[in-house]
Design a protein that fits this description.
By secondary structure, this protein is an alpha+beta fold. The protein has two domains: about 70 residues, Nucleic acid-binding proteins (OB fold (Dihydrolipoamide Acetyltransferase, E2P), Beta Barrel); about 250 residues, no CATH class.
């Protein structure tokens, strides 16, 4: 009997070590039924039973766990990583742990799960205006080189209209991606219509937030680089706070300041990673430009090249930035307050 039990234990341990494990956070666990749910860091929601726990007979909402994902979408061989948080509503604090990998993983998993919304909306709201600005810029430069007044005027008008549409689209996209990302964190599928409704609803508040933060940050950058960077870090999740918590402009700025306090070096590190990724994408586009003749051909703008590359870069950067803000906000709330996935998703219900 002991030999059989030992063999079973060996098989479980061997399986846990050899199969791919996933880390996640417990969403719910009902002692009465012995059933619960885990939000995996891979962006998938898993069910589990008490019999799947290793080294414990019970587990609490908010605990970080490692587990083996089963083929049936359930978590197996679950090991608790740390004690559960005390929810902020009861006056407690979060885990205090900030994980770079978790933020990045959630960002790209949210994009993957909501690819149609993210890239479809970005192509429409950011890509089309970017094409208009690219066309306007090329027309202006061509007209100036050929001393053609109609081309110059037409180029300026097209460029300005494109900029206005781009700003409108960028703020709507931010609201849409936040909605889709939060739904993904909670294992819910968000339709394009639902996300679009959020984008429309929060467009004006997000625009106001961008104006206030942009003026203050821009002025800080003019004075010195460091204050500008610091404000960018402090207010990095203000847009997410505005949308998710339905706060006003100045309340959202203060909320972001509170959430980032104690984690600003980590946020700075994420911003550096984002800048590096942007440079890599820009370098790849520049390499493509060299291979295809560049953005200029015989001294004139290469319209076809500009109409493709500029919108593509803006589409990708807008999606990653918006999803990244939502993921960063979630991580900060979890670390500081212990706000679980269900708390964030409930804001939109």
């Amino acid at each position: 009997m002991l030999a059989i039990s030992g063999l079973a234990l060996y098989n479980r341990n061997s399986r846990w070590l050899t199969e791919g494990t996933v880390r996640g956070e417990v969403l719910t666990f009902e002692v009465a039924t012995g059933e619960g749910a885990i939000a995996g860091d891979d962006g998938v929601r898993y069910g589990f039973a008490a019999s799947d726990l290793r080294g414990a007979t019970s587990i609490e909402r908010g605990q970080r766990v490692d587990f083996v994902p089963g083929a049936d979408g359930r978590a197996q061989d679950i090991i608790a990583m740390r004690p559960a948080y005390v929810p902020a509503s009861s006056g407690g604090a979060g885990s205090g742990q900030f994980d770079f990998g978790r933020v990045i993983s959630r960002t790209f998993n949210a994009i993957k799960q909501n690819a149609a919304i993210c890239f479809g909306a970005s192509a429409l709201l950011v890509g089309v205006p970017s094409m208009l600005t690219a066309f306007g810029g090329a027309s202006f430069m061509t007209g100036a080189a050929e001393s053609s007044s109609p081309s110059v005027v037409g180029g300026v008008v097209a460029y300005l209209v494109g900029i206005v549409l781009y700003l409108i689209g960028a703020f709507m996209l931010q609201g849409m991606v936040v909605k889709a990302a939060v739904g993904g964190f909670n294992g819910k599928r968000v339709t394009f219509g639902e996300a679009f409704g959020v984008g429309v609803q929060y467009f004006l508040p997000l625009l106001g937030l961008a104006i206030v933060a942009g003026i203050a940050t821009g002025f800080a950058y003019i004075l010195l680089i460091v204050p500008g960077v610091l404000l960018s870090i402090i207010w990095s999740v203000s847009a997410a706070a505005l949308v998710m918590e339905k706060r006003g402009v100045f309340e959202s700025l203060q909320r972001s300041r509170d959430l980032t306090r104690g984690y600003r070096w980590q946020v700075f590190g994420l911003l550096v990673i984002y800048v590096i990724l942007s440079w890599i994408v820009g370098g790849a586009i520049a390499g493509l430009g060299v291979a295809t003749g560049g953005s200029f051909t015989n001294g004139s703008p290469n319209l076809a090249f500009n109409l493709i590359t500029q919108p593509l870069v803006n589409i990708l950067s807008s999606v990653v930035a918006s999803a990244g803000v939502a993921s960063l906000y979630y991580e900060l709330r979890t670390a500081k307050e212990g706000a679980g996935v269900d708390n964030l998703a409930g804001i939109f219900d």
